[in-house]
Amino acid sequence: MENEEKRDAAIRLTMMPRDTNAHGTVFGGVILSYIDIAGGVEAVRHTKHERFVTVAMNEVIFHEPVFIGDLVSFYAETVKVGNTSITIHVEVEAERFGNKGQKVRVTSADLTFVAIDEKREKVRIGK
Fold this sequence. Notes:
By secondary structure, the protein is of the alpha+beta class. The chain has one domain (11-115): Hotdog Thioesterase (Thiol Ester Dehydrase, Chain A, Roll). The protein has one helix and five strands; from the N terminus they run βαββββ. It has one helix spanning 28-47, and strands at 11-14, 52-57, 71-81, 85-95, 103-115. It has a five-stranded antiparallel β-sheet, covered by helices on one side. It is elongated and about 45 Å long.
């Protein structure tokens, strides 16, 4: 993928047998969960606000399967910051295990998070 040397993954992990379905591919829900985590990491990194909740994740289309042993990277980038919400774009890429570093684009998503306080009330970002 382009610019991988310049990008810092929000999270990167190796897929294990516990993450797979009966067909030997990683559950889509596992990938969705990590997309959510990566988006949350970026929201906190970008704003320094400590608490966010996910309110939306746009359409997710899987272009390639993910297999046991693949090293999966979740690249997150802030798209927009509002008063109480932030939109994060997450790109997912898999480096194929045992395939000389072949990388494939798995999927991407835009997520919207809302800043909350310790009482779980919506607040302005940074407050």
